[in-house]
Design brief:
Helix content is about 40%, strand content about 15%. It is elongated.
């Protein structure tokens, strides 16, 4: 008797069922083929699961890309300066850093001379127009916002350092969203060694400021000691300490490393390893 068995494209001819040796050969072949089928099915399942995982991973990456937005920073220039001058200071930062943030530069409210401005004036250890300057900043935040953070240099850094605490205390910026981040370049602390606190900012540092913050100052910076005071007012601050003076410095290898640590902390970039 002849029998024909087809299994996944294999054709096995069993010519004589009475032939015991051929019967055992057929049985062994059948078992081998069955095992091959099982391995194939398991492999197919694993491949399918891997494909599904890759599709889900790709979809998740796309979602993350959609969700990630550039954090917006309102930027405050230094004494007797303006928005354009401060913006120019950042041209030597790499594009791959600047493109991770949306920096909005504005002029201060008080004219020092043509085209140059201040955020407040100091007279005999008092600040007669400080409250007016803070109200101006809030108006601009309402007009140009929303903003996620603040950035300041020199006189502007005094404000950037104090505003999160002032807002937390409920004394200003009540009509805008919470300041989530701060970048403070050559700043200082109101109520510290060099700057008496304006009445409106007296409680700005009454408790540690618990937001991601990046503090930048130099070895030859005239604000170095003041900047150190401000660092201590924040929880887990990141610090770029460069070898220059009172300036927006170029970012060397170590500075870039810390900058990217800050950008990761504020979700401006995503670590691909977590995807």
């Amino acid at each position: 008797m002849k029998a024909k068995i087809a299994t996944r494209g294999f054709l096995i001819l069993l010519k004589d069922e009475a032939d015991q040796s051929r019967r055992w050969t057929w049985i062994r072949l059948e078992r081998s083929i069955k095992r091959a089928q099982e391995i194939y099915i398991q492999s197919w399942r694993r491949t399918g699961e891997e494909i599904l995982h890759q599709k889900q991973k790709a979809k998740y990456k796309d979602i993350r890309k959609m969700e990630i937005k550039k954090p917006r920073f309102l930027c405050f220039h230094g004494h007797a300066s303006n928005a354009a001058i401060l913006e120019e200071h950042f041209t030597h930062w790499p594009d791959y850093v600047l493109e991770k943030m949306d920096l909005v530069f504005i002029d201060g409210p008080f004219t020092v001379e043509d085209g140059l401005f201040d955020w407040f004036t100091k007279e005999n250890n008092t600040y007669p127009n400080f409250d007016e300057g803070i109200a101006y900043i809030e108006d601009r935040m309402v007009e140009l916002g929303p903003f996620d953070g603040v950035l300041g240099f020199s006189q502007g850094a005094l404000l950037a350092g104090a505003l999160p605490g002032m807002q937390e205390q409920g004394v200003c910026l009540t009509n805008v969203g919470k300041i989530e981040y701060a970048i403070i370049i050559s700043g200082g602390e109101f109520g510290g060694r060099a700057f008496p606190a304006p009445e409106l900012a007296e409680t700005a540092f009454s408790s540690p400021i618990n937001i991601p913050s990046l503090h930048i100052f130099g070895e030859r910076d005239k604000a170095r000691l003041n900047a150190l005071e401000l660092v201590e007012a924040y929880v887990d601050p990141l610090v770029i300490y460069h070898n220059g003076g009172h300036e927006v410095p170029k970012l060397d290898e170590e500075g870039l490393k810390i900058m990217f640590e800050f950008l990761e902390e504020i979700n401006a970039i995503v670590d691909e390893a977590v995807l």
